[in-house]
Give the backbone structure.
Amino acid sequence: MEDKMLERLTKCPLCKSGHFLNYREIQDYAVSQEPFMLCNCTNCGLKFTNPRPTEDTIAPYYDFPEYFSHDDKAKNLTQLVYQKVRKYNISQKLRFLTSLKPRKGNYLDFGCGTAELLVHAHTLGWKVTGIEPNEKARKLANSKISGKVYESINGLPKGSSFDIITLYHVLEHIHSLRKTVKTLIKHLKSNGYILIAIPNPESHDATKYGEHWAGWDVPRHLYHFNLQAIENFAEIFDLQLKEILPMSFDSYYVSLLSEGYADPQQSTLKKYWKAIISGKKSNKEAVKTAGNYSSNLFVFKKK
């Protein structure tokens, strides 16, 4: 993209260490076709895009059809499959939330998209709130749950507190990482949970597809957490890591996108078939390798 404005980081966004090295260059296959450098922090293990678009200049990089969480309508087969899987995942997510807090309570979904999860949570008795920066998705969300979705964390009502806060594939997009997480924790009740789902750069599909792995998703994904980085994340923000859960469907979706990046000329049928094989293999390998799934859900609690 022409006339882009990048910011160069001199410290790790997570631990603030100045000790990091260039890791590898990854191309933005989805939108701009530009290369971006990933750095690896030798102190905490976080990988991060550096330099990166600023918060004010990154919006055009989200302008592509495959960014499905901002839309409710299926425009192609992949999006239709995505929405079917999303519907199933919503039921699984709500079942797990209820297991953590059987009496329900106040629930905040950060990066709620079109609020499908919040709508269903509300019907089960949760008092729901959402944060969604994307204007199109936010307007659609607010049409469903009447003004309960805010543009940013700063818009939350003063003194609001939550029993559960979720960030499903959101943390890797947040520019002000430390500031945002600290603010979220301030809004978390003393016995509350914060759930974070993120891609895993050490999964089988990440290794298989290499630079074509869709989980890199530069420059939209600003960070990549391995287990070391997650453990340091918990220590930095004084959280207790209670559980790590697999997000088994992600391996198929990520493999599908990765196949398209690796070989854009292959037929749709071949791409889907190879993605199914790859996703299944990735999940099978994860069982052998201490839970290295394509994406994991990390369940934290205040200490």
Notes: The chain has one domain: 74-302. The first helix runs from residue 77 to 100. The mean pLDDT is 91.
